[in-house]
Amino acid sequence: MLRALEFKRPDVMPSYDNFWQEFVDQWRRWKGFPADGRVASVPESAPSQWDIYEYYDNDVRIAAADETFWPSKATVLAPDGDHLRERDGWGRVVRKHGNFTVTETPAMPAECRDPDSLVFEPVVMESRYREFDRLVAAEKDARCVFAKIGGPFIRISFLRGMETWLSSPASWPRSIQPEVRK
Asked: How do residues 17-50 score in pLDDT, each as one tens digit?
């Protein structure tokens, strides 16, 4: 992987796949592997743990800290049929089904015009990095671990709601508002 990043010819083409947890769970059942990824007796030709990234010889893992605005306020509200309703760390009320999310209520009402006035929880909160640190520690000797960071578009759409964000440039933070020429 490092040779490829240095624009040198690698001995093999580095590979990367990202798997949704629902896919991993179904894959483990299909293969007859235990759900937690461990088995009592491992065939000699199999990896020591039934880890999908190891099984398919992935060279890369992506680690992400909790990037939400208010991680301590995330809470499950109620089940709703096959969906789960929750207030997420972005401040939205959402319905979730697997990896798919539908926003019921954005964090910031449409009539609020100053997203720059909001106070977010500190980026240095230890809780933001627990999963990140665990994944890096577990993977650093086996794979190249990249840190994921998100961009401003998706963050502001989580805050304002997609429709408000796209339909009202006046609602954009001052730092990215387009210049208006007269």
From this structure: 888 888 888 888 888 876 655 444 444 555 545 7
Residue identified by tokens 């339909």 is 167
Q: Which of 56, 6, 10 is nearest to 31 (CA)?
A: 56
For the chain, give every domain's residue range. 2-16+58-172, 17-57
Three-state secondary structure string covering 6-27: CCCCCCCCCCCCCCCHHHHHHH
Residues 96-117, buried b or exposed e (16+ Cβ, 10 A)?
Answer: eeeeebebeebbbeeeeeebee
The dihedrals phi and psi of 69, each to the nearest 5 degrees, come to: -75, -40
Neighbouring residues of 78: CB distance < 8 A, sequence distance ≥ 6 = 85
How many CB atoms are located within 10 Å of the residue 156 CB?
19
| Angle made by CA atoms 125, 131, 134, in degrees to the nearest 5 | 115
pLDDT tens per residue, range 134-172: 999 988 898 899 998 888 788 888 888 877 777 766 656
Of the pLDDT bands very low, low, confident and very high (cuts 50, 70, 90), residue 128 is very high
